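Sample intake sheet
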Amino acid sequence: MKKTLFSLFLVSLPLMAQQQKIVIDCPTRSAEEFGQLADLAVEIGATHVVVSHLPKSRWQWELDRNDPYPNWNMHNPALFKIIVPRDFSGLLPQDSADRNLAIVRQRAQVLHSHNLKAAMRLCEPAWLPEAVWEKYPEWRGPRCEHPRRARNKYYSPCVDRPEILEIYQRTFRQLCTVVPVESIDMLTNDSGGGFCWSASLYPGVNGPVWCESRSYAERVVGFLHALQQGAREAGIESEISVHYGSGQISRAEVVSVVSHLEPGQAINGQTRTGRVLDAAVGYGYYTSAVNPVRGIPQPIRFVESLDRAFRLNEASVKIQMTEFGIPEHLQLLRNYSDEHGLLQRAELLHRTAAEMVGESQAADLVQVWEEIDHATKRIINLVGDPIMIVGVVNQRWLNRPFVPFPMELTAAQKSIYRPFQFQANSEKDAADLMNLQGFEIINGYSGSLLARTAFEQSISHVSRAIEGVDALNLDVDRGLHFRRLGERLRVLRCCYRTAKHAIQYQDILDRTDYDNPPVEENIYPVEGDQKLRELQVITRAEVDNMIELIGLIERDPGFYIELAQTESEEDIFTYGPKIVEQLREKIRIMLDRELDANRLYIRRQG
């Protein structure tokens, strides 16, 4: 039998503690991979699998490619992206919905054959195109876009309208006849979705005047009830949880809802009875801290969350993975038992490491995992928004040249990054490396110093992890996985360096006087401006960093970095398949524009 990555490390499975519900939430790249995910769910004793990881609804961005904001919503599934209600026929793309419905139907069939149940993650109530409100102006709900991140305004439906509730109920009933969805987790007031008159809406409290005085509990509970009723009409009892994802979350608002929740409903993890509806295991794309690098395991973080979740014996457990097939995480799931505590976690990590590399090297592998843990946690704790997403990915730091006069770059030079850069404000703001989705998370010398220090520490930890992986002595089959892990860690180190360089570079430009050109005198010797020397050092370091990155990924860039499969599928959250040639172009532009800095600072003469 052919060995697979999973069979290399497969051992007998101790039973997990019996929970009410164990949900696996993981994107898959093919029907075959989803089948493997279902196999894993059965193996570890899971009860549900999320079926709503769907192709991005690119049509939302195509409405206006100059507005980056739909990129947040187009990767979040929503009910009307799967089934178009008859009321919205011709107003929402039917072909896209039909493809999505076919995907979830096929996945439901796989789950049925495995005796598993379906779960979904949705963003609701999600914004709808202006054509909907032109036809139904009375159904227009609140504005839900981020004012600093969007060029247009976006409205979600008003769920205080009985007609809207009836549409949701009817459509969810129709979905449940195809896919019996027993668990729904909804994001709201974020990413292009939201409830009327919520304090957490990005533009602030807003909505139609007619429903302003309605209690918030009636609004939220009524919406959840409509979905549950639709499921009941299809013969399904569904648990529905709604989470506020953004803004100033009003505690009073949430509390006002909790006491009115019905059975099987939760808001921000709270139920009416006080039972915690679900406990999270693992982490998702947004909080991974290794974007856009694929395949980096974080076993210590994974085990810590696993232990926390299973301590809550009455809670459902949701196991979240950024991608399927990271063997360290799969093996930890297989090995987990219901014994809790620091010592038990250490024993679990050591036992899993021993199965992967042998008893004699198990402590060395655990040390590698500890270095990765130290590296990622420094980045996670750095700022509010995940900088590896909003900086390295959304602001295209990887393929974007660092130059003293970015506004002077030609349209052709900007074309490798600008169309896929998240920037909704002016071109001047877009030229600022540290303007991250409309505001500067890291600003000033002190902020730059703190961020740079965090990245330098993380880079050191990643370097030690690389040394540890390289030192492992393994046979060919097992060695291949760890050799590739070493390469991926080197790619991550390059991405961390780029983030550090971008922060340093922009801080120097921010402390530069662009209005008064330097006056250079014929005096010998002259040390010149320190900022000029710093820019030179950063420029050379980033050029060398890009050369290393190209050498690592050029043979198979998609193996190392999350990439769109085709140029037409590239978006603000995903680099395109031509990343290697774009990195080479970045190097050319940076070297070509390097001496532009002489226009800003007194040069050294000595």
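Comment: Residues 1-15 have pLDDT under 50 and may be disordered. Residues 476-510 form the longest helix (35 residues).
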